[in-house]
Amino acid sequence: MDVTKYMEKAAEATNRRNYDYAIELYLSACKMDPNNVIARRSLRAVENRMAQEKGSSLWGKTKTATMAPQLNTLFMMKKWDSAMEKAEEILKIDPTNCGAMMTLAKSAKSAGYNACATAMFEDVKTMNAGGNNKMLIEAARELAHLYELDNRVQDALDVWGYVAKQIPGDREASQKWRDLSAKSVTNIIETASKDGKRGSMARLTQTDEQKKTSAKLDLEKGDIKSEADLEAIVQHTNDEIASCPDERQLPKMYEKLGNIFKQFGRYDESKAAYENARIKDPNNPAYLFKLHDLEISKMQSELKGLEPAVRAGEAAAREQYVKSRDAFLEYRLNSYLEREKQYPTDSKIRFDLGSVYFDLAEKRKDKALYDEALKRFQSTFKDPKFRVESGLKLGICFDAKGQYELALKRYDETIAGFPAEIKDDKWKNVNYFKCLTLIKANKADEALKVLYEIYEVDVSFKDVGKKIEELEANKGS
Asked: 269 and 231 in contact (C-beta within 8 Å)?
């Protein structure tokens, strides 16, 4: 069913900030065409935008809590379309509700709306399932199966690789990786033979072809050793794009091409590829952030290139470095603020944004920037993956604001999370900054005790030995 008019009106309403009307139009489009991914993603973008501007409410949370059992009942009764509509009712109030999104995805898959299901499982995975690791792995498995059904072999390989990394020794992930790698080998060899290709592609028929091909196909673990290898993979990817029968696969293909070029520092070509991916799927913010990451990487390379001249004491280089560093921090700040709007529950994005605010605050000694950093780290402190770094930076932020007791409390909570037998560099670092705060808080005896704890396991850590001498001397006087 053609829902173009509904979507055009919805886009116009969004531009006028008439979000409620836009949401109703997108919901109507989704109801009439349940497998329309563009309508579904556009709907979620407007919901997220409205939630960011208006904020959440106690009524909203209560409302979604009462609707969740209704959604589960519809799903259990196999009323797939009704379950999808009920899930959208919940997401209208709480667009980051990964439980509703997961049920929506599973209902769509059961109803045969595979494109919709794929997009929703992708969103759950992008949002890290709101911190629910069990749900995240389930979404990844479902996504990998859907990619395979859609003959998106490389995408399926990538996701199974992710599952294997999260759950070492997982049988299904290992078996699927082997099966799909073999399938990719066959496809590439057949394509290369059919087109009369030689060189790098011909090497796929060697005895150790499985290992070599898997490495080539997985860009993260690529084994590209020459310019000829690079050109062969680029050519093969371009051939896939040219002959692709399904336009839905093109964004991912262009993304793959952009990743290849980025890996080898060919920024202009990488940028063009990511821009093509965004043109093909304009409602998927992932491609916008690929462009942002590319620019960030370029800026980092430029800063690194200035470092030798700065170390040599060249005034012009130092002036340029300071200017470029400021531009880099501002760009990252704007990029991660936009990411936070799109994925408000993603811990990594919140941690990275907190780190950007932290760097700016340290540079400018601005308490308001420390507050912005604190807000993000207070959230990510609850995530085990970011607990130690978040706890350390929370302590440093509170210290910088002169709130020493709060800093010490956060340091102690962070240290308490270390197993008794673990006294690595992270443990030493948190204790070291705790010591600095204790000194500022005029608690020299406690600071000395902490320093000796570090000294006992590593006498050469930072300037611990020197600080012990200073505190002991002051104590004696």
From this structure: no
